[in-house]
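One chain given next:
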Amino acid sequence: MRDPAELAAVYLAIDSPTGEEAELRARVARDLGDGGLTVLEVAGCIVARNHDGDPAATVLAGHLDTVPGSLPRSVGELELRGRGAVDMKGGLAVAVAVASSAPRVPVTVVAYPGEEGPLAGNGLWHLRAAAPALLGARRGVLLEPTGGFVELGCQGVLKVRLRLAGVRAHVARPWMGTNAIARLGSVLAALESLERREPALGPVRYREAIEVVGVRGGVAWNVVPDAAELDVVYRFAPDLDAQAATSRLLDHLDRVLGTEDHVEVIEAVDGAESQVAGFEGLLQGAFGVRAKLGWTDVAQLVAAGVPAVNFGPGDPELAHSDDEVVEVAELRFVAQALWRWLHG
């Protein structure tokens, strides 16, 4: 097997923030072609296979893009540092190395752009729409950073913007108006009182999160504000779908919202559950199993009919940080675990 650390070092040297993945896409396509796979480019994605539509295939998927911002790069014998080392050029390198090792089982590699931006720009989303047959498989692994753990499923995402209404007045006569910003207090209290569930699904437990991530309001120093906005994100466990999560949040807020207030659902995306069945061999080679806290494209693979889990190198808590570092030993560990599972 080609050393995934060597490939990761090459990929790390190519900047690929969202929207600027072309150079890295070309390099990944070349490496997969050199590894004996048939390479297609569809909807901006690289799809490489060692078979001709075998439904027993295993999908190895990873995104090409990183979040914006450069970091100093360093490649040593023990670790690789730089933007994307964790999220997720290390995982991408593992996928290419494993698929290029001529496994005796059918493998499909999908390398896609736009994961770090809105879902509408996600390459895997467009691939599902343009050529769903290319994703036909009996199982899949998304090589997002998991620290060598198998992470099951993923949370769903709900983004809601609340616009609270008030009545404008002079600040010297506030009783003549209604301060929309002051109304935020009751909304924040209501959000705080909503239970963050921790349901156990199979062998893992999910932990929900509800956070205010944006506040806007105010007119001038001498004006009682007649409007205020609040941005709320709800990361919900995958036993709820997006519709149920939206109802849960808005029903709870209904008691503090008035008829003049406005609720806008910015985004509502289902999560996904993963089953252990079919991945027992991979679990034996991993450090353990846990729930995925966050949304990943496992949800898209499951929606496409491909049972999937998250499994990749790198500490997920370092993703998007200014200290992205992945250990060479972990790159090789994950690659070997995948290779043995595929050949088991």
Summary: The chain has a mean pLDDT of 96. The chain has two domains: 4-153+273-342, 156-269.
